[in-house]
Design a protein that fits this description.
alpha+beta, M1 Pyruvate Kinase, Domain 3, two-stranded antiparallel ribbon, 12 strands
């Protein structure tokens, strides 16, 4: 989708802001056996700020639990968004309801193509919050257990529409219904979809990720640099 088309999508906004509470489950490999993946829409405004370095910082949203800080949370994965349009497509495929927050996303959006978002793209949500796209979401065992679907990790990966992680550039309060404005689009062509395929099923795409520079999630950037060092561009 072109930049002009994206900027004229109708009603780019948040449908919900979703928070999760730590909950004991049998399907996580987190040492304490708890997860915050089961997220539900918040009733009022939610404060969003950079949570701190991965391994120490958790969710960027006040009141939201990230239990496995080895693999989740931190500044470069402070906020996770999923498009309602993608959830609707999964509803049709799975034959079941998927309420906002079903994929563990903090933000459920409408009118936005998250797979087509560029790494380094910046979103202004409401009057204060400024976010920057860093990567797509890599599915894990906890996600599969939460969904209860056979071959879920493989199916989600094959679909190639993983939603997007963001870092927080400017903190602020947000709530359901807030408008989303795309205020910056970098000059490269590294989308969330390209980044996701490069780190999952098509590693030959890794050199392309270098065009996104430091806006890219540090782990993906390190993988791209290692690939180029070993195999060339």
């Amino acid at each position: 989708m072109t930049y002009r088309a994206r900027m004229h999508l109708p009603a780019m906004r948040l449908l919900s802001v979703n928070l999760g509470r730590a909950k004991a489950v049998p399907y996580t490999d987190q040492p304490e056996g708890v997860t915050g993946i089961d997220k539900r829409p918040a009733d009022g405004p939610v404060r969003v700020a950079a949570p701190g370095t991965k391994g120490f910082g958790a969710s960027g949203l006040a009141g939201d639990s990230v239990c496995d800080t080895r693999h989740h949370g931190g500044d470069d994965q402070a906020v996770y968004a999923m498009a309602r349009e993608d959830l609707d497509a999964w509803e049709r495929e799975l034959g079941r309801d998927l309420p906002d927050g079903s994929f563990g996303e903090n933000l459920t959006t409408t009118g936005l193509d998250l797979a087509g978002a560029l790494i380094g793209e910046r979103w202004r949500i409401g009057p204060e919050l400024l976010l920057e796209v860093t990567s797509g979401r890599i599915p894990c065992r906890t996600f599969q257990g939460h969904m209860g679907e056979r071959r879920w990790v493989k199916r989600f990966t094959e679909k190639g529409r993983p939603g997007a992680y963001f870092r927080v550039l400017e903190p602020g309060e947000i709530r359901a219904g807030d408008p989303v404005r795309i205020v910056h689009r970098p000059a490269h062509e590294v989308t969330v979809a390209v980044q996701f395929r490069a780190v999952t099923t098509q590693r030959e795409l890794l050199p392309r990720l270098l065009a996104a520079g430091d806006a890219l999630h540090p782990e993906a950037l390190a993988s791209a640099r290692k690939y180029v060092a070993e195999y060339g561009a």
